[in-house]
Design goal:
The structure is a homodimer.
Chain A (H helix, E strand, L loop, with lengths): L16 H6 L5 H4 L3 H15 L4 E2 L6 H5 L4 E4 L3 E4 L17 H4 L1 H13 L4 E6 L1 H10 L7 H9 L1 H25 L3 E5 L8 H7 L1 H10 L7 E4 L7 H6 L4 E3 L6 H8 L4 E6 L1 H5 L2 H15 L5 E5 L9 H19 L1
Parallel strand pairs in A: 1-4, 4-5, 5-6, 6-7, 7-8, 8-9
Antiparallel strand pairs in A: 2-3
Helix pairs in contact in A: 3-6, 6-9, 7-8, 7-9, 8-9, 9-11, 15-16
């Protein structure tokens, strides 16, 4: 690629008027059952922004919903669980995922996209900790009290839960790659709530297993979380090819923590984009400078696009990244 | 002191049954007008836990409420502002604080406590960024969109706002010290939402001014925020005698970032205390080990006590810290 590639987490979604026009009311899990619609939503930001990758329009709880755990995604709230995971007996509610039977529409969406896109399609899955946090808390959480209590007081059940969720993630990712996804991102969005010792002991092994089992797939594996500044070396150690970095950690600092191996992805503060083009351009140039060159850097925001973002800002931002980094190459 | 001192952020409050018994309904700002009551609430955790310091029962928005900005604290929500700060004209709504006239009950509470306590009393103020975030957003926020937009698009007004808030904080802190507080903590609870460049440019100068103006007071100055792993060196650079560290950053890592000067305060994950005594004891020992000895460490949680915490756990935790660190001294 003649420039630093750029895409945006949550590039498909509420900041786009064409998305709001298309999107019916109700749960995303219902939308996903319509492959033509999900594919169109995935394509919208590629057309408008000229980003260098598409990311499948889906949700990290889709697989656990598909095995019948009783999860839905309430608009404006997030994942909501009817009967949260509370003890060992709930493991039986998490059977193996059979993607072809349980959510055949996902592979169908990927196939449509693989035929239409001329940029890579990124598939994804939720990391075991982050999915577990929804299943245990029953809804989005601030303090993760139940999750941490389960982990610390019943480690056997906790590890069994994460193991189940890792298997489900691997099955889902393999199906996406088989259908045509050419990279995968594992979202451990909320792992940053853990101190590093606790992360290493109770979370890292299951995440590492996903990355290891996907190593043979031949596609780049991205691992991302928010507030994970102290976990970046562990993310690299877990086997990520690309480590996602939120906006709190300058990329030069992140590079020292992950070492020379993995690429870095990030890390413009999405709130800066809401403030308008002037601040966005200024901070984007700082991010590019901290990335230290075009090699080993995928430009992205430090978290998902905020609904309040003006799409025109994100469009100009793609141009800026391409222009600045093409210049750097000459 | 023959051991590592320990106190807990939000040690006075909803986790204590004697607090719930005493606390009338409604805003904390109303309670603060009753010095005997505020003093009693401040004393409760000292009696029950045997902590090595009291922290004044108050709220970081009390001073801006007292100058008439139109702020209240809604139970279960947090600070709520009637007419949020939105542009330069709102600066006129933030006149100088005259503690003796505007909130005389605070000094009165401190005087009562100074007479009753045989441990130090910590006074406190909100740091300019964190108070500004409430004034601008109008309520607790997740993304700080309005705050960041004001900062980035109207820096002159932003700096004037932070300057006003720094003056108010200094006036409030001086009054507390004059009345008998023997240390001060500056809460920049939400500064961790900023990338380090933005923090240094738009926030650090006003915080540094508070610390500088309080240097002559002769009391230790603690600076604390959540998710501030990448800002710890700046917190030291701003002039803090003690740098508060949340649970995400191991204290040995924090020590490398702040250098040898300041003491460190922290940093047990408050959610671990909710999980019970076993996990609490184990993680507390890890925190003490990472602190690397009794010198230059004030044991605390990494953020405030959660309402769900069993007070018996916090009581045993004081004993554990005292016992482990007395042993270490021999």
């Amino acid at each position: 690629m003649p420039w630093t590639p750029v895409w945006y987490m949550r590039q498909a979604g509420r900041s786009l008027p064409e998305y709001r026009a298309l999107r019916r009311e109700g749960s995303i899990l219902e939308v996903l059952r319509h492959p033509e619609l999900a594919a169109e939503i995935t394509l919208q930001p590629v057309r408008r922004y000229g980003v260098d990758a598409a990311i499948l329009y889906s949700d990290i709880v889709a697989p656990v919903a598909a095995v019948g755990f009783g999860v839905d995604v309430t608009p404006g709230v997030g994942p909501v669980v009817e009967r949260p995971f509370s003890s060992r007996g709930d493991l039986a509610r998490l059977r193996d995922l059979e993607p072809d039977l349980d959510l055949p529409w996902v592979a169908e969406t990927v196939r449509i996209l693989a035929g239409e896109l001329d940029v890579p399609l990124i598939g994804f899955a939720g990391a075991p900790f982050t999915v577990a946090s929804y299943l245990v808390e029953g809804r989005p959480s601030r303090d993760y009290l139940r999750t941490k209590a389960l982990m610390l007081t019943d480690p056997a059940t906790w590890h069994a839960l994460l193991d189940r969720l890792a298997s489900i993630a691997v099955a889902s990712l393999r199906a996406q790659v088989a259908a045509g996804a050419s990279a995968v991102q594992i979202f451990d969005s909320w792992a940053g709530t853990l101190d590093p010792d606790t992360y290493r002991r109770f979370v890292l092994p299951a995440t590492r297993r996903i990355l290891t089992e996907m190593a043979g797939s031949g596609v780049p594996r991205i691992l991302f979380g928010v507030g994970t500044g102290e976990l970046l070396a562990d993310f690299a150690d877990a086997g990520a090819d690309v480590v996602g970095v939120d906006w709190r950690v300058p990329l030069d600092v992140a590079r020292r923590r992950v070492g020379p191996g993995p690429a870095l992805q990030g890390n413009l503060d999405p709130a800066v984009c809401v403030a308008g083009w002037g601040p966005t351009a200024e901070r984007a140039r700082a991010v590019l400078a901290q990335a230290g060159g075009t090699s080993g850097h995928v430009f992205n925001l430090g978290h998902g696009v905020l609904p309040e973002t003006d799409p025109a800002v994100l469009e100009r931002l793609v141009e800026l990244v391409h222009e600045e980094t093409s210049r750097g190459r000459r």
